[in-house]
Amino acid sequence: MIMPEECKKAAEFFLQNIDRLITKPTRFMEVCGTHTVSIFRSGIRQLLPEKVDLVSGPGCPVCVTPNDYMDTAIAYAKNSNVIITTFGDMLKVPGTSTSLYEARAEGADIRIVYSPLDALQLAINNPAKKIIFLAVGFETTAPLTAATIQTAQKKQINNFFILSAHKWTYTALDALLSDPTIKVDGFLLPGHVCVITGEAPFSFVSERYAKPAVIAGFEALDILRAVYMLALQVQNGQAKIENAYKRVVRTEGNPIAQNAISSVFSNTSANWRGFGGIENSGMTVNAAYAQYDALHSIPVTKENSRENPACRCGDVLKGNINPTQCPLFKKICTPEHPAGACMVSIEGTCHAWYKYGQGRYHYGR
Amino acid sequence: MRGINMGKGDITMEDKFITMAHGAGGVKSRELVEEIMVPAFDNEYLRQMHDGAKLPVKNNIAFTTDSYVVKPLFFNGGNIGKLAVCGTVNDLAMTGAVPKYISVGMILEEGFPIKDLRTIVDTMSQAAAEAGIYIVTGDTKVVNKNSGDGIFINTAGVGNLIDGCDIAPRNVKPEMDIIVSGYLGDHAAAIMALRHNLQLPDTLKSDCAPLNKLVYKILQAAPKIAVMRDATRGGAAAVLNEIAAQAGVGIIIDEDKLPVRKEVRGFCDILGFDPIYLANEGKMVIFADKTYSSRILAVMHKDVYGKNACIIGSTNSIAPGEVGLRTAIGGIRIIDMPAGEQIPRIC
Q1: Would you say the ipTM is above 0.85?
Q2: What domains can you pick out in chain A, each with its CATH number?
């Protein structure tokens, strides 16, 4: 990313004004993991005045995937009739006693794919096998899973299944805000999610909880601009939803993608790492497409799941602590040997803190 | 080629695939060597056909070995054979030596197409010719089907150390310039795109190349460079971290000075990779006193493998052992040692 001089000037403008507008210690939460990574990669945390703290939220799909989901996936992987297909970063996520990565080393057939359509193609190529796609992700990935299931039905592919962990981002934000101990003064809303959902699902942030929120893009300047807009709202005592990513996000979102989700999925209670069960926060395959739901069609027995009690991913995901306050961080829990999901994903908060050095190096804050 | 007698006559290699017989030491083994290896690699030392090659070398030599396993075996810009020659040539060059002789050990999987083997061997011969080195001894073994990945290659090599050069991490001091020889990440991007069936423009190809002639020219112009290293596995990030740790210096590089092709940057953005961690097979990182930089760059810019060389940052005494990158908006992020394999992300 080579920025011309004007961009550097713009960054300085935003930083100076944020410093001017914010007069007391203020915490903004970036909900999305892609924001977290962009913030670290561009060094925004060090450039912001110390009174402005950015905390990461529950917006990394890998991180909020609980152990029981991983244990189920691993149990399926051990079925010699099954090929598990997954996005790469699920491989190393620890389950209760092992991971897909270890299961693969022990002989399970687990393939990395870039799209559920790749998994569907694999099903077409391997009619004797059952292909299970680990459908993890938020509103951004769910439409493609839905479209793939619709394609499977049209093409009458009967050996393609999904194990759904698709989730609605805004439900976690609602759960977070309903907790009175959470101290956040404003939100950077996930730009890519809003491309699909539009602004409406997030309106409760300002309406019910009176918090300012800005839909933000992912370049360094997008983020600085959004923080600046939050600072303006804080200074003026406002609480509204603003869109700082209009070049991509339309107010109403993407109706085609929304339709795909609602045709194939219905809402269900889902488990979130760190939050526990949240009502209507998950997407499960609805009755019309039930045959594509692995849990419906392929029996499985998994081990009893439990979370590592020392792992504080939950508090990290809620923005209660930063990763360096977790007793496992960089001692037991490292990217090579992750104890919790937040250390696994490239977009995980702990991974970002570890990788980009906060709390570990001389450089940076 | 050890254990194989040169026979006369006109044996023709009609087999289409490698069989276990090609590794049994009999007629088939001889055919493999005489019809594929010897004609391609031919030189006076190989022609000795002894248990080992007898070679003229000066007193001080450099010696290295490396094994090559790559999937896919053929890719835009080269194949496993080119990697095996260039890799060892480059390792020798990085020590400040003039590479001279290399050995080739091949482990072939039963059923490997002879046509592919010929292509690989021809490529190795071309790479050796370009680098000006001799392939002087070798070995082939065959393993059962499913016990290998088509072909594994080991090469080892020796080279004459250039008088007056002392290439070592301990020579790196604070306030030195850090130079890279060209665009970063081309090789890994080309390989991963193929491995994962991603459509990328044809212009994206492996940078696999022998750097020894470029290195020789650099050392003629500036014999006192502190250290250089080829940025293979782990990319430039691994080299910078190794040198920072071994020399006990801090390193800051500038994001907007890093040479990365637009298509590689796009590839990285999509998959969540960082080009500085991507493997290269024809790029090196040089640490040198600032007074030498312009001389070094002038030489590099005249060479096909160094024409995009540039200074990417410098060493310091502020943070010994640490590598930082100054971002385009002026922040600093840490570039640490790569951990595990690069795995693409969800969204």
Answers
A1: no
A2: 15-309 (3.40.50.11740), 313-355 (no CATH)
